[in-house]
């Protein structure tokens, strides 16, 4: 999901500009809903990137500690 972060960011910004600009058109409610969904996707992908990065760092640290013990 980390690779979709930039896509969610672009979609969120475009739909935010269209949906909340004050211009009334037929699909404004749909665009606002898409903005909400893509904002949630952006939040989750950023959160996923942070969590996975922490987990990878912790695993690397544990592997280095095990290598030192084995030598």
Topology:
Blueprint: H1 5-19, H2 28-70
Helix pairs in contact: 1-2
Transmembrane segments: 5-23, 29-52
Protein name: Putative secreted protein with PEP-CTERM sorting signal
Keywords: Membrane, Transmembrane, Transmembrane helix
Give an account of the 3D structure:
The protein has two helices and no strands. The mean pLDDT is 80. It has helices at residues 5-19, 28-70. The longest helix is centred in the C-terminal third of the chain and has 43 residues, at 28-70. With 71 residues, the protein is an all-alpha fold. Helix 1 (5-19) runs antiparallel to helix 2 (28-70). It has one domain (2-70).
Kindly summarize this structure in a few lines.
The chain is built from two helices and no strands.
Features:
71 residues, mainly alpha, 2 helices, 0% strand, rod-shaped, Putative secreted protein with PEP-CTERM sorting signal, transmembrane, transmembrane helix, membrane
Number of self-contained structural domains:
1
Q: What is the tally of helical segments?
A: 2
Order of helices and strands: HH
Which runs of at least 5 residues are low in confidence (pLDDT < 50)?
none
Please give the radius of gyration in angstroms.
Answer: 20 Å
Structural class: mainly alpha
Cα shape = rod-shaped
| Number of E-type strands | 0
What's the rounded overall pLDDT mean?
A: 80
Distance, first to last CA = 37 Å
Helical content stands at over 70%
Largest sheet: none
How large is the share of residues in beta strands?
A: under 5%
């Amino acid at each position: 999901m980390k690779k979709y972060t930039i896509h969610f960011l672009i979609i969120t910004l475009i739909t935010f500009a269209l949906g909340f600009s004050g211009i009334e058109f037929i699909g404004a409610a749909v665009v606002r809903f898409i903005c909400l969904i893509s904002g949630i996707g952006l939040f989750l992908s950023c959160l996923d990137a942070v969590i996975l990065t922490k987990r990878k760092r912790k695993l690397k640290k544990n592997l280095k500690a095990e290598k030192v013990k084995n030598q």
